[in-house]
Amino acid sequence: MAEIIDVEPDSLASRKEIKPGDRIIKINNKPLHDYIDYLYQSADQEIKILVKKQNGTYENIFIKKKSGEQLGIIFKDIVFDKLFLCQNKCVFCFVDQQPDNLRETLLVKDDDYRFSFLQGSFTTLTNLSDKDLKRIIELRLSPLNISVHTTNPELRIMMMGNKRAGKIKNILTIFADNGIQFNAQIVLCPGINDGYELERTVKELLDFYPKLLSIGIVPVGLTKYRNGLVKLKPYDKAKAQEVLAQINALQKMISKETGNNLLYAADEFYLLSDQKIPFYEHYNDFPQLENGIGVTRLFWHELKEIETEIPDTVTKMNIGLLTGHAGEFALQPVINRFKKIKGLKISSIPVDNYFFGDSVTVTGLITGQDIINKLEDYPGIPDNLIIPEIMLNENKLFLDNLSISDIKKSFTEININTCSSLVELLEVINNE
Questions:
Q1: Per-residue pLDDT tens for 240-277?
Q2: pTM for this predicted structure
Q3: How far apart are CA 79 and CA 43, in angstroms?
Q4: How far apart (Å, rounded) are the C-alpha atoms in residues 261 and 252?
């Protein structure tokens, strides 16, 4: 059943007295398994909704609406039946590299094609049934985001610990033949799926163009919690340079064949190798931001866009921007520009990641305890701290379940704000 958590004011649903806590059982006599069913069944201009009210009674509600008009219902989840869990044992799985004391939701390994379509997450397709495949095609659930890693059947089976993983090209062929577009992800592991295997994968994926929209290449992420797991090495400067040289050559080949670039490397490769971040135009509307691809360039582009809004002078204030070590590089142009504001003292505060290990440098994986540890030893803590929203979940909790309030308890004299963009950072500066 589809549980409702909110109803938009003055919407069709509210006028029919559909309320938070109610549950939708069927629309037009068809059960709802997920938000996709809801979208398709509620698209008709005349619909019948079977609702289970909070008091346990059932009610049939008839609604007439204009074409494209929304009901105004917000659900608790986008999957109403059982979540499709991951059946793989990937050698690089980040969930398997986490401590046991994390909140339960962080230890759940989902691999659901519906999240791929609705929210842009990546799915391996190894748990896809014939019924699921038929549904994707019939409903034209496109584009999908697919974790490919390699097109070599034997190697993919080994990397993912699943015999079904070797069927990836067969599934992609079915998708392409039926008009389903997709973005591909490759988590690159040194000595396993890079080098020759990477070239093979990219070239074989290119056979699916134009249904192939993009290929994103990200380095394997390794934490200190790898006891009992396959031994993997992280990419260092020299290896990252080799990867980028290979990617650059492949990009030229792809551009020559298609007239466009489809292949992108994660920002981390450029940071590791001390190479320049590509220009804004290189990323072609940034199709794989969630993979950390183009985030730095987009951030710098935002700085240019807000140039006219940056004040010349502010009331005297001192700001510290909390960040992971990888994010420190991206922040530097911002800090250099904001230092020109009279009355403003601003600096970055890179936080060491003791929770996952020092090889994890991305900002989004910094925990509350790591921030507290950093500030306890930090000389001259600024009066104002900025915490990037990416460190927090929807409940404003860090990965270790600490909250901003927990940090405030340790540092009562400091103002703490959260920001998700430079525009929000400017608002903090202007309002102080």
A1: 999 999 999 999 999 999 999 999 999 999 999 999 99
A2: 0.91
A3: 18
A4: 8
